[in-house]
Structure formats: structure tokens, C-alpha cells
Amino acid sequence: MLLGVDTGGTFTDFVLADASGLRFHKELSTPDDPFRAIARGIRALGLNGAELHLVHGSTVATNAILERKGARVLFVTNAGFEDLLRIGRQTRPALYELCPTPGEPWLARDDCIGVHARCDAEGRVLCAPKPQELEHLARRAADYDAIAVCLLFSFLHGAHEQAIAHALPADKFVSLSHRILPEYGEFERASTTFLNAYVGPLVQRYLARIAEHLAPRHLFIMHSAGGVMDAERAGQEAVRLVLSGPAGGLVAAAHVGAMLDIPRALTFDMGGTSTDVALLDGQPHVSNQGSIAGMPVAVPMMDIHTIGAGGGSIAWIDEAGLPRIGPASAGAQPGPACYGLGGKEATVTDANLVLGHLPANTRLAGQMPLRPELAQQACAAFGRALGLDAVEAARAIVDLANEQMLGALRVVSVQRGLDPAAFTLFCFGGAGGLHACALAESLDMRRIILPLASGAFSALGMIVGKRQLHLSQSRRMRLDAPDTQQRLETLFHELERRAQQQLPGLTLHYRRSVDMRYAGQGFHLNLPWQRALDTLGAQFAQAHAQSYGHTLAQPIEIMTARLIATADTPTPAWQALPRQTMAPQPVGHSQVHAVGRVPHYRRDTLGAGAIIDGPALLLEDTSTFWLQPGWRIVVHRFGHLIAERKGEGR
């Protein structure tokens, strides 16, 4: 049995694939101890952990960074570079702010130590660390949970970092830059190595607890680039998990998009705490220029834009008397006011309940009843300062949330020169279906996909994801040098050898690419590898002109070789639905503000080919879809809902 588990800020989602097909489940998350929600969900599904192939998307690393609750780290670098993490690139987030407020440093000056070890830009040793320095370092390390080691040009010569690691106490978590990120760019390599040490001990303890208490047959973790890695490697390279959960949704969207022959989409994943949006053009875009909490994370990550607007986002009034939504969230505890668990402030979920977009008899996750009267009280209290009644306040809350999510969708489309109307809105997450039609209409989008298991879709991505490695190695070489072809082939063969060592016994497919730049530039462009170097150079010039509007009469350099190794592993089979032979019958009705009496349909009773015209509410245990007037839904044979504006075909 294959079980995908995605831990979110409000809910923990489960998708089980076994001989009978797919099953879906939700549990309220337990932020103080995420494992409790996982164990509770496995019990509710009646599963034996020892029989499971468990694939998990975890927020442990993300939350530790955002909340600054990671391990105590000693940062080791070259003597004279102890302030590397504090100085950074000296970029300012607000260029014209005359009195910028400096961010809180991640490390105190006493937590950084320099050693007299040095290599030059060709990897030649200039100075090796002395034994007395290593002994002093070992004594200093005794007071820390983890040690991050980043020396200049370690990607060319890693022996000095290895010597430091061997001198450290054996019980310490050690993060070495030439293993975590063997690439040029000392600040990005240092910050990534530091964050790996910062979250590594927490992730290792968390995964060890899952392995000990559940004892699954296999435990895999989804990494930020959308592949799956084994738990041991995930603990060693925990920085690769910062987008572990959201990446699952994008992987599943690409999978379903290929099934539906819809390669171009804007994905919209609205959960209880945040909303993640991304551009899907055939395959998700993966970037190695991400950041979190102001720190660069240079490992490959899905290109996902996140905002603090989810179902649990709290409505509040700012100092100017203007209404705001988020980023603070009610989370799972106490949750929105309508949960009846002690929450008092109005949230987006409360507003949807007041407006009727969520029926009053809804049971979240199929279990938790809602308290409409508490939502009404919370919205009324929020609206009082604005001179609004409860319904008007609820409308304002939903409108504000929609504007924030529209802004996020424009970031990944309009700001990149793309017209959202040319894309399909791919909607998932427990709260996404309540806002999809309004967002699509505002962006002039004509089609919405609400996939099967939309409320637990990221967990579905866990079980359709494949074992995958992203490997890289920086080596600077001129494109026109006579030995470049041979050097690159040797480098790629070495990366393939590493991939085979890390994924033994599996059939691997490789995708090669290179980072290129004009000589002297401080940035690069990534291009697919071509054996014909003249063709590669022409493609780089074209890409440079497209990105920056010009080319240069400068030699071209290759800076980094990259390899993606993907294992040839099967994915769960989809079960086709029986054909719908009669018109769908509503299971109830309720009032929706400004619309009137609206029918309810249970999604799990709809067959392939079923057609429903809006207005309507489509209910399932993991989510609710508010189908606005002017829209029509057709059920795909595998259970996906395809919504289109009436009179506008595909």
C-alpha cells in the first residue's frame, strides 16, 4: 500500500493507493507535534504502518526557518570571512529607503569562527588547516547542536572541509558546503549550508520518530524540486525540504494536466494558512535561486509563489483604519471561530460560511461540524469598526482575500509577460474551490480544473512523484576551449556515477543542463546540454537576448554542469468512473448571499459525463466547490471536474 501524507498548517492530508483504488482523508494538524496528526490519520484509515510505503511532505524544515526555531549552529569559514552571512550581497530590499531597518542576524558574531585554510580559484592549496586550530574548533563545537562549514572554493577542493568534519565530535550534525552545494557563489553556498545545519537535527529527529513508531516498509520524503528521496538522505540534506509540501501539488498538477492534455495552467493551491501559486507550462519550472526568510536557498526548488492568505487567515484593521487579511492565521488551534475551538477573530473560512459558500451543515474532513452562529458573531465584531453588518463584513473579507490571491496569480503570469486568459486555472487545496470561479472571472480565464482529491491534492503528488536526484558541479571553462567537450563529458559521467551510487538498482533517466554566462558576468542562464558546442553557444546568445534584450561580444563560459536523475518507477493507476446515465440529483439546498437557493451535489455520487450548471455547491469530505452562476461543470472519466463558462467551449 502506498500512502501519501502532506502536513499543512491547518490540515494534514492523506491519499492511500491500494488494490481498491484511491482513498482520501483529512485530519486537523498538530503544529506542536506534526507526528500526532499523522498517527491519528493512519489509525482512522485502519492501516498497519508496517505494510506502508509512506511518502511524506513535511513542513518541519520550513516552519523552523520561518519561526527561527532551528538548532544552535556554529558557522566555520575561512579566517577573515567570519561576517560572510551578515554581509551577504549587500543588496537592499527597498532601494530608496533612506533609513532601512536591518534584519535580525541569524548568528551572533561569537557563533562564527575562521580557520586558516585556503585554496585559490583553481583549487590549488595555499594553506592547510593546522592541527591546533582543529583541536580548538572541536572544543568550541561542544556547545552547539550543529556545525556548518563553508570554505572558499570548496567545490574545487573539499579536503579541508572533510578534515574539519573529522576533527569534530561524532555526535554533532555537520553540514559541509562541498556536499550540500558544490557550486560557485560563496554567499549562496554559505547560506544554504547554514540553513541545512539549522534544520537538519530537527528533521532527523522527526523522521526518526516516524520510522520508530510507524516502522513503515519504506519511508520517502518529497523534496523541494518535486522528486522523492529516502529518509536518510532527507535528514542529511534537510534544506532540500523547504518546499516539500507545496511541491507535491505542482507534481500532481503536471501529472493530471498531461492526462487531460492541458499542459498550460496557473496552479492555485489555497489551504488553511497560505496560498501557493505557480505557472505550469508542460512541466513545472525549477529554480536554484530561491530564498526563504530573506536567506538564499540555492538548491533546486519548484518556482512557487506563496502568500499568507488561506482559509484560516485572520481579518484585522490596521493603524490607518483599513481592513486587512493575514498573514496571521488561526491555524488548526484554535482555528476559525466556526470551528468552536476557542477562536474569536473572523477568518476567510468564517466569511465563506456567513455568505453561504460553505453550507451550514458542512463537516470539515467529513467529521467536524461547523458553528455558523460563531462565524456570524466574529464577522459582526470585525465589521463593527467599519460600519458593516456581519454579511457585509463577510463580503469584504472574501473580496480582500480574492484581491490578494489575484495579485499572486498576476506575479506568475502578467509580470512575466503572459496573459492569464491563455491558461487554465488548476484549483486545489481545501479552500481553493470556494474562490476559483471569482478568480477566473477576474482574470478572464475560461476554464477551471478541480482535480480528483482536490482537497488533498498535494498528498496525491507524493504518491505520483518519482525518485529523483538533482546533482551539480561547478567548473569554469571557456566554451571555445579545445578540451571543453571532453571535460564536460567527464564531469557528466561523474555526476551519473554519483546518481547510480545514491539510487542503486534503479533504472535511471538523465537530463543534462549547463549554467552559462558571458565572461565576467555575475549571473548565468541555464540551458539544456548540447554536444554541438556551436549550437549551444547560439542557443545561449538567443536566450540572453530574450532575457536581457542584447548580446555581448564576449567569450562564453560554462560555469556549472547539472544533472537530473529520475528513476523509472510506476505510478498508481486511475480508476475510471461509471457513466452518468441520469441527470444528477441534488442532495440538499441552502441559501447563498446575493444568489438565492442553491442545490448541493455530492461529488462522489457523480459519474463520468455528468453535467451541472451553476449556481451549485459540490461537496466532498476534503473540500467544497462554489460553482457560480454562468459556469458549467462536466465530470471527466477519472473524476476530475472541468468547469467552463457557459457558451465558451474548449
Describe the overall structure.
It contains 16 helices and 37 strands. 29% of the residues lie in helices and 28% in strands. By secondary structure, it is α+β, with helices and mostly antiparallel strands. It has six domains: 2-66 and 203-244, Nucleotidyltransferase, domain 5; 73-94 and 103-200, no CATH class; 246-305 and 421-464, Nucleotidyltransferase, domain 5, CATH 3.30.420; 313-401, no CATH class; 468-567, Dna Ligase, domain 1 (2-Layer Sandwich); 588-645, no CATH class. The model has no long low-confidence stretch (mean pLDDT 92). Strands 13, 14, 15, 20, 25, 26, 33, 36 and 37 form a nine-stranded mixed beta sheet that branches. The protein has a six-stranded mixed beta sheet with strand order 3-2-1-4-11-12. Helix 9 (244-259) packs across helix 14, helix 10 (348-355) packs across helix 12 (390-411) and helix 11 (372-384) packs across helix 12. 48% of the residues are buried.
Rg from Cα: 26 Å
Number of strands: 37
Q: Per DSSP, what share of the residues sits in E-state strands of 2 or more residues?
A: 25-35%
The structural class is alpha+beta
Number of helices in the DSSP assignment: 16
Quote the distance from N terminus to C terminus: 37 Å
Provide the low-confidence segments as ranges.
Answer: none
- Share in helix: 25-40%
Q: What oligomeric state do the depicted chains represent?
A: single chain
The main β sheet shows up as: 9 strands, mixed
Domain count: 6
Shape: globular
Mean pLDDT: 92
